[in-house]
Design a protein that fits this description.
This protein is an alpha/beta fold. The protein is built from 17 helices and 16 strands. The protein has 2 domains: about 5-45 and about 55-80 and about 210-280 and about 415-470, FAD/NAD(P)-binding domain; about 80-210 and about 280-405, Alpha-Beta Complex (Polyamine Oxidase, Chain A, domain 2), CATH 3.90.660. The longest helix is centred in the C-terminal third of the chain and has 16 residues, at about 455-470. This is FAD-dependent oxidoreductase.
Length: about 475
């Protein structure tokens, strides 16, 4: 029987192990932490009984992942929960744009921009599964749906700042801008329109759900499926060198390129080694979890319908603050992504105390405390929020890195999303998962298709490993 070891028990490492196990491979996962899950964990961070997500919180690509659908994670206890509105974007005027799973309902709330929103996202949402089949994999492949790609390409290649001009109202521009800002990059560069298009389209196709009980429930379901398929997991095992690895036919690494270099660098071909050394980490996040008494007192009450709320003001302000952050400036009003997961999943609350999740985009390696800036951004659109805070837990960039070695410098998306690295990660290659050492593959979010709890980085890396194993029979 073919044997495999997977280093790293994040969602992609577990997905790789699961796909191997389902194909008859004897697979073992080694995780340095005492628990698996990486960015998909949850627990009590503020007060007893109140459940917070440690990192990833909303899962438009998770609920639509073809691999999770094939596995059937719902059979292992996973339950998706949807809020009434997927996303809200309040403005200083008191107005707010709302993203609903229904593109018609979204358009109805955007006034004169409703028809333009439908024209921009309607075809992408309707054919999202076909589009995702080509985009959520390595760039270099024979496209299965060339017509869909041809339709998406001219929009995706634009800077987000250019695409936003399609909309006439600030409500629609800001709603798109907050979604585009998930890129964690300045928005005036080519290709920066692409992620906003994909996330909005996936929302209209599947919504932006949360996992009942917290994102850790996704991990628990994957672990259940893995064990059901014969896979084994060992925690508290740190792999620092090749000597720490058990003998196996194939090895998959749910690690950053820098970590891969530290283990296999001496064996990797010089050109691949150079590519990995050039790989750039992305910008940083500063996360704060709040426990609050009651709900957030939004100036616009529609914000209380949304699972996700983007706090960044107008599109022009978002573009400016993201440009400043990319230049290393910690602005007074950073872009903040806020989560009200309890709106869809009230079991996360305890006795009227609700969990609030928020993180700010901060300059790379920021070593300060951004809690006050985050609180001020919330207060800007919800006066009186400060008075409802019961407890606070801040997680800075160094703490994020300490909690997960893949979050280098507080980079929670696995590498900079700009230039060619946005589409050719971790390097330009026909098989970007192969590291140049026979039987060894990278499967982290630094590989295609990138960040998200969709498991597809692990799935595609495992497919590469299976092809290698079959070629040796």
């Amino acid at each position: 029987m073919t044997t495999a070891v997977v280093v790293g028990g994040g969602p992609n490492g577990l997905a790789a192990a699961l796909h191997l196990a389902r194909n008859g491979v004897d697979v073992q996962v080694l995780e340095a932490a005492e628990v698996v899950g990486g960015g998909a964990r949850s627990g009590e961070l503020t007060v007893p009984g109140v459940i917070h997500d440690h990192c990833s919180a909303f899962h438009p690509l998770g609920v639509g992942s073809p691999f999770w659908a094939e596995v059937g994670l719902e059979r292992y206890g996973l339950v998706w929960k949807w809020p009434d509105a997927d996303c809200a974007h309040p403005l200083d005027s008191g107005d707010a744009g709302l993203l609903f799973r229904s593109i018609g309902a979204t358009a109805a709330g955007l006034g004169s921009d409703g028809s333009r929103w439908q024209a921009m996202f309607g075809d992408l949402a309707e054919h999202f599964d076909d589009l995702g089949d080509d985009l959520l994999r390595p760039v270099v492949h024979v496209p299965g749906h060339p017509v869909r790609l041809a339709s998406f390409g001219p929009r995706a290649i634009l800077p987000a700042t250019v695409l936003a001009r399609w909309f006439r109202t600030e409500r629609a521009r800001a709603l798109y801008g907050g979604i585009a800002a998930h890129l964690f990059s300045r928005l005036d560069r080519p290709l920066t329109a692409s992620l906003g298009l994909m996330i909005a389209a996936s929302g209209h196709r599947y919504g932006w759900p949360v996992a009942e009980g917290g994102s850790g429930a996704i991990t628990a379901a994957i672990v259940g499926a893995l064990r059901d398929s014969g896979g084994k997991i060992e925690t508290g095992v740190r792999v620092s060198s090749r000597a720490d690895l058990p003998r196996a036919d194939i090895t998959l690494l749910d690690l950053s390129p820098a970590q891969v270099l530290s283990i296999f660098g001496d064996e990797m071909p010089a050109r691949i080694r150079r590519s990995y050394r050039r790989y750039r980490i992305g910008s940083s996040a500063y996360k704060v979890d709040f426990a609050i008494d009651g709900d957030i007192p939004w100036s616009n009450p529609d914000c209380l319908r949304a699972g996700t709320v983007h706090l960044g003001g107008s599109f022009a302000e978002i573009a400016h603050t993201e440009r400043q952050r990319a230049a290393g400036v910690m602005v007074s009003r950073p872009f903040v992504l806020l989560g009200q997961q309890y709106i869809a999943d009230p079991g996360r609350s305890a006795g009227g105390i609700n969990p609030i999740y928020a993180y700010a985009h901060v300059p790379r390696g920021f070593d300060g405390d951004a809690t006050e800036q985050i609180v001020a951004q919330i207060e800007r659109f919800a006066p009186g929020f400060r008075d409802r805070i019961v407890a606070t837990a801040g997680t800075g960039t160094e703490q994020l890195h300490a909690s997960n070695a893949n979050f280098a410098g507080g980079d929670i998306i696995g590498g900079a999303n700009d230039g060619l690295q946005m589409v050719l990660r971790p390097r330009a290659a026909l098989d970007p998962y192969a590291i140049g050492v026979p039987g060894v593959y990278i499967c982290s979010q630094a590989s295609p298709p990138g960040a998200g709890i969709h498991g597809l980085c692990g799935y595609h890396a495992a497919e590469s490993a299976l092809r290698y194993a079959r070629s040796r029979r």
